[in-house]
Amino acid sequence: MVAERAVLYAYWLSSCSWRVRAALYIKRIPYDEKSVDIVREQNHLTDQYRAINPSQKVPALVIDGAIIVESMAILQYLEDTRPDPALTPKTPLLRARMTEICETIVSGIQPLQNIGLRSHFESKEKFQSFTKYWTERGLRTIEDQLQTTAGKYCVKDQLTMADLCLVPQVYNGVNRHALDLNKYPILHKIYKTLLEEDVFKKTHPEIVKSEKLIRL
């Protein structure tokens, strides 16, 4: 019996969506992507999407007869159910180091530059200043973390969840704030290396944007 294809509800430019898209690619999981416009059309605020994801955010993944929301929960589920190829290091210490980097991004940077915060600021300029500050602070933290963990990738020479979090967030920061990545030499080197990997080329937002996706 052929398993049903997974369905990813996502927005093309969402960093959280890109993490999951990359994991699906690495795990070789067939899926269809349904576009949820969280900017102009704000499809995520509809009752239709709320029935899929009560938090009304992206991404959401329909797989194995279940709906899973929150990108890191999705990544962990994919790792637990489809462990090969692995996206987590073998040793407890390196797994902890990977999680430190992931948390710096998913807790310390991404939520503080989320477009949903824009309406709580008096102007676009104040919002941009706020998001740039927290992005740069987070990248400085990651640069320090990478001094003890980096190899070819964030955690030695294994592609891990840390890399799946890093690339979308740095891409977002560069495009929104024209950040000077030379301030973060280790991070910059790893980022450039990762952008040359097929997983990030094939799942890149600009590639996704050009595809004719099913729309919510």
TrEMBL record:
Isomerase is among the record's keywords: yes
Domain GST N-terminal: 4-86
Catalytic activity: 4-maleylacetoacetate = 4-fumarylacetoacetate
GO CC annotation, single: cytoplasm
Pathway membership, UniProt: Amino-acid degradation; L-phenylalanine degradation; acetoacetate and fumarate from L-phenylalanine: step 5/6
EC number per UniProt: 5.2.1.2
Keyword Isomerase among record annotations: yes
UniProt domain GST C-terminal: residue ranges: 91-216
Gene3D superfamilies, alphabetized: 1.20.1050.10, Glutaredoxin
InterPro entries noted in UniProt: Glutathione-S-Trfase_C-like, Glutathione-S-Trfase_C_sf, Glutathione_S-Trfase, Glutathione_S-Trfase_N, GST_C, GST_Zeta, Thioredoxin-like_sf
Biological process according to GO: glutathione metabolic process; L-phenylalanine catabolic process; L-tyrosine catabolic process
Signal peptide segment: none
Cofactor(s) needed for function: glutathione
Keywords from the named record: Isomerase, Phenylalanine catabolism, Tyrosine catabolism
A molecular-function term among this protein's GO annotations: glutathione transferase activity
Family membership: Belongs to the GST superfamily. Zeta family.
Protein name: maleylacetoacetate isomerase
Organism: Papilio xuthus
